[in-house]
Amino acid sequence: MFAQFVQPYWTALNDRLQDIVRSELPDEPGFGAMVRYAMGWENEDGSPYDKLTGKRLRPALLLMANQSAGGQWTDALDAAASVELLHNFSLIHDDIQDNSPIRHNRPTVWRVWGVANAINAGDAMFALAYASMAKMSDVVSPEVALRLWAIFNRTNLELTRGQHLDMRFEQLERVSVDDYISMLKGKTGSLLSACAEMGALTANGNEKQASKYGEFGLNMGIAFQIRDDILGIWGNSDVTGKSAATDIQSKKKSLPVLYGLTHSPELVELYQVDDFGDPEIEKAVHLLDEVQARQYAIEQEQKFHQAAMAALDEAQPDSQATAPLHEFVDALFDRTY
Amino acid sequence: MFAQFVQPYWTALNDRLQDIVRSELPDEPGFGAMVRYAMGWENEDGSPYDKLTGKRLRPALLLMANQSAGGQWTDALDAAASVELLHNFSLIHDDIQDNSPIRHNRPTVWRVWGVANAINAGDAMFALAYASMAKMSDVVSPEVALRLWAIFNRTNLELTRGQHLDMRFEQLERVSVDDYISMLKGKTGSLLSACAEMGALTANGNEKQASKYGEFGLNMGIAFQIRDDILGIWGNSDVTGKSAATDIQSKKKSLPVLYGLTHSPELVELYQVDDFGDPEIEKAVHLLDEVQARQYAIEQEQKFHQAAMAALDEAQPDSQATAPLHEFVDALFDRTY
Question: Residue A335's CB: how many other CB atoms inside 10 A?
Answer without folding.
Answer: 14
